[in-house]
Amino acid sequence: MALTPPRFTATRLVPLSLHPTSDPIEWSIVIPAYNEASRILPYLRTITSHMRDRSQPCEVLVVDDGSTDATASMVEALIASTPEIRLLRTSRRQGKGAAVRRGMKEAVGRLQLFADADGATPIHELARLEQALTDGADLAIGSRALATRLPDYVVKARLHRTMLGNLFNAIVQRSGLRGIADTQCGFKLFPRTIAQDLFSVSSINGYGFDLELLYIARQRGYRIAEIPVNWSDQPGSKVHPLKDGVTMLWELALIRRKSAKGNYASPAHQ
Q1: Is residue 224 part of a domain?
Q2: What is the domain range of residue 168?
Q3: Using one digit for the tens of pLDDT, what is the confidence trace for 202-256?
Q4: What is the C-alpha to C-alpha distance for residues 217 and 195, in angstroms, rounded to an integer?
Q5: 4, part of any domain
Q6: What CATH number corresponds to the domain at position 152?
Q7: Which of 130, 144, 191, 269 is the most buried (most CB within 10 A)?
């Protein structure tokens, strides 16, 4: 059966001249959102306040993945007083991976972070990931698993999600991503050149997109730094551990097949 390509509605773009400074954009922060009307505004306000305190030009790209609630209208209202924010919309839900990929392809910042809309990872944790890049990593990923092993971090998660997450990570470890304790934390940082490379190859639209990104990064020889971060489970999660876990296992099998075929190798090695 032929697949119908996704249809995109008009994109709401804020001209760069409306940003607080005319300097080149240093940071792009991509927030995928699906029916996040009850949770997204506090995190957006925290992000923009924090970045203004850093005095670094930034853009915050909210990618509305076909929401059926007031997510888009609430973000549009906030844009009137917060010109750093841009809103990208799709006419129907494509999946978190598709939303992040679209946002990262639109982003223009030298450094590009994607973060979950619920604010489970505080935005100030980006400094830890930024330091990892400064120290020589090619990309840096937040890790709840590493944080739980350290006394100075706080990770608040429901027991059943922790148990299922640990089981999934154990399977992933045996499937070609050894040495990464937490593949699914929604807080990952890339230099723009590397983000453009990874997201130009990735194709998984569901929650397994994190796995695919890390597989591609490994295949292309990028140095991945896994960094412990504080994290707190938020009410209203869209993730269903059992249902989505099964889907991610199917996506993992698909990713392994693509990897075995050399789909993720650097062009110079294909």
Answers
A1: yes
A2: 24-259
A3: 999 988 899 999 999 999 999 999 999 999 987 766 666 667 677 888 888 899 8
A4: 10
A5: no
A6: 3.90.550.10
A7: 144
Distance CA 235, CA 214 (A): 28
> Which amino acid is located at 256 in the chain?
R
In a domain, 14, yes or no: no
User: Mean per-residue pLDDT for 19-36?
Assistant: 84
Rounded Cα distance between 72 and 227, Å, is 32
- Report the relative pairing of strands 139-143 and 187-191 from DSSP bridges: antiparallel
User: Looking at the domain assignment, is residue 18 inside a domain?
Assistant: no
Do 161 and 233 touch, CB atoms closer than 8 A? Answer: yes
DSSP H or E stretch at residue 134: helix 126-134
158, two tokens: 């429901």
- Quick: pLDDT tens for 51-96: 999 999 999 999 999 999 999 999 999 999 999 999 999 999 999 9
Q: Rounded to the nearest 5 degrees, what angle is found at the Cα of 106, between the Cα atoms of 193 and 117?
A: 105
- Tokens representing 244? 């989505």
Q: What's the distance, Cα to Cα, between the start and end of the chain in Å?
A: 30
pLDDT score of 161? 63
Distance CA 123, CA 109 (A): 17
